[in-house]
Amino acid sequence: MKWSLIITGILVVAAPALAGDDHPAGIGRDQTLAARFKAKTIAELVARYDSESCIECHEEAHEQWSESAHSRSLFGTGRTALTFRTAILNGLMTWKASGVEELKDVRVEHLMGCAKCHLPQLADATDDVAREIVESIDAWRTAYLDEDDDKADELEETLLSLNINCLVCHNRNAITHKWTDGYPRTDTVYGLAGGDIAHEDETFSRKETSPIMGASIFCGQCHGEGPNFELENPTQCATAYGSYLFAYIPEGGHKTCQQCHMEESGLGHNMQSYRAKVMSDKAVAMEVTTQAVVWRDVSTMRPKATVEIDLTNQAGHGIPDG
Ligand code: HEC
Ligand code: HEC
Ligand code: HEC
Ligand code: HEC
Ligand code: HEC
User: Fold this and answer.
1) How far does the centroid of ligand 3 lie from the alpha carbon of residue 151, in Å?
2) Are 227 and 234 in contact (CB under 8 A)?
3) To the nearest whole number, what is the mean pLDDT of the chain?
4) CB neighbour burial string for 173-192, b if at least 16 within 10 angstroms, e if fewer
5) Ramachandran angles phi, psi of 120, nearest 5°
6) Substitution site in 62, 186, 199 for ligand 1 pocket (most atoms within 8 Å of beta carbon)
7) Who has greater pLDDT, 48 or 298?
């Protein structure tokens, strides 16, 4: 009786304090790179996750990464950036309740339908950055069509500076269950192993174990399960992780994304698909059996052949994806 009275008292006192406080929940959240401040320009956002310092000691990882699609996750081959633009023109601008009438109306939340996976750190930026990205893509396209090579190259470089780099994977996205495992700290790189020990980088002077770095769920953060229902207007692009969970695993598959894409392929950080022979060679097993038969068609003997082809998908998910 007494206790419940005391608890009610505490709740009454605490309630007004909590009511006006829109600070997000989670102890340590305010000490992440993401929470430092909202980046107001592309340059500020790039600086936040600047991975230049990693190169000198991890040259091989860097070389491999720079060949991968992750190093150009917004620009892609040009097609990814242009598809962002199409999604705005043919999507957002035609949807009556999106609030987007012109390119300049685009805000972070509009772009998250793509950036959730192509540039997750956009969540740590202001709407100015969303606009700067959209305007840069548009200006790049115009310069490209006008054959203004210098301008196009300059804008391409800006768009390429936005990517999934060392710190996006080894810090920002290295922990999925943040209330269970804690928020990623600003001074720490997260790897497969290591525990809480010193790391030689000046700024990232600690090394900790990421509970998910070696597991498929790590890649699953961006490789999709299906429609992204948490968005105001769900999008769908990649679905490999869903296919992995609901088809490959139940069929008895037991390898992780990292095993096939980083380790057995020998490609390490240059995670690849059909663009690399070592992957496309493994994609489908083909077994062909042929047999000659003589077919008796009433009274006529006709030589025939039967060809039986078994195609088996050996990837850990449906192909092609998306
Ligand atoms: C001055 C050199 C130096 C710099 C700069 C540096 N590292 Fe390291 N890093 C090391 C050494 C040495 C190890 C330990 C080697 C080992 O045991 O694998 C290591 C280990 C790691 C590991 C493996 C952790 C594990 O146990 O799996 C990761 C991940 C890592 N570094 C990421 C980074 C990132 C990201 C940056 C840039 C922010 C960076 N490093 C900058 C020297 C450096
Ligand atoms: C759930 C995460 C996710 C979302 C959301 C997402 N993508 Fe993707 N996207 C990927 C991944 C991962 C790939 C790599 C190929 C694959 O698995 O299909 C990809 C591939 C692409 C490609 C093909 C690139 C190439 O050249 O092969 C384009 C273009 C693309 N995305 C554009 C978009 C646009 C535009 C949006 C928003 C409307 C979007 N994506 C939303 C994860 C996502
Ligand atoms: C797309 C996510 C991703 C990016 C980007 C990425 N890594 Fe990794 N990294 C991983 C994963 C996953 C592993 C664990 C690999 C495994 O399970 O075999 C790893 C392992 C490592 C390791 C320890 C194993 C080793 O190879 O020695 C180091 C060091 C490392 N990464 C450094 C870097 C550096 C430096 C960069 C930037 C140039 C980088 N990583 C970019 C996902 C990433
Ligand atoms: C932070 C989000 C993110 C994470 C984490 C991530 N990826 Fe990706 N990945 C992408 C995006 C986005 C693309 C497509 C970029 C583009 O081309 O437009 C991609 C492309 C790829 C491709 C090339 C696909 C193609 O069409 O050529 C492979 C393979 C791949 N990722 C494997 C992995 C694996 C394996 C892991 C885990 C070790 C992983 N990725 C982790 C976002 C991510
Ligand atoms: C058993 C090995 C294996 C596993 C496990 C596996 N993959 Fe793959 N993956 C492949 C192979 C082989 C290809 C090449 C397919 C091709 O050439 O079209 C591929 C292709 C891809 C592609 C490109 C799909 C496309 O449209 O071309 C992506 C993205 C990808 N994998 C991501 C992942 C992710 C993320 C995981 C974990 C959830 C994963 N893979 C697990 C073997 C594997």
Assistant:
1) 33
2) yes
3) 93
4) bbbeeeeebbbbbbebbbee
5) -60, -25
6) 199
7) 48
Structure-token pair, residue 143: 């310069």
Inform me whether the pLDDT recorded for 243 exceeds 80: yes
d(CA 113, CA 142) in angstroms, rounded, equals 24
Instruction: In whole angstroms, give the CA distance from residue 207 to residue 191.
Output: 7
Closest residue (by CA) to atom 40 of ligand 1?
54
> What is the Å distance from ligand 2's center to 321 Cα?
10
| pLDDT of 182 over the 50 cut | yes
pLDDT in tens, 59-112: 999 999 999 999 999 999 999 999 999 999 999 999 999 999 999 999 999 999
| Mean pLDDT within 149-170 | 98
Long-range contacts of the stretch 46-54 (C-beta < 8 A, 24+): 46/161, 46/162, 48/121, 48/124, 49/121, 49/165, 49/167, 49/168, 49/171, 49/172, 50/167, 51/165, 51/166, 51/167, 53/201, 53/202, 53/203, 53/204, 54/166, 54/167, 54/201
Q: Is the CB of 189 under 6 A from ligand 3?
A: no
- Kindly tell me if the per-residue pLDDT of 173 is higher than 70: yes
Which residue in this structure is represented by tokens 């449906």?
A: 318
Q: How far, in Å, from the CA of 69 to the mean position of ligand 4?
A: 6
Q: Is the pLDDT of residue 13 over 90?
A: no
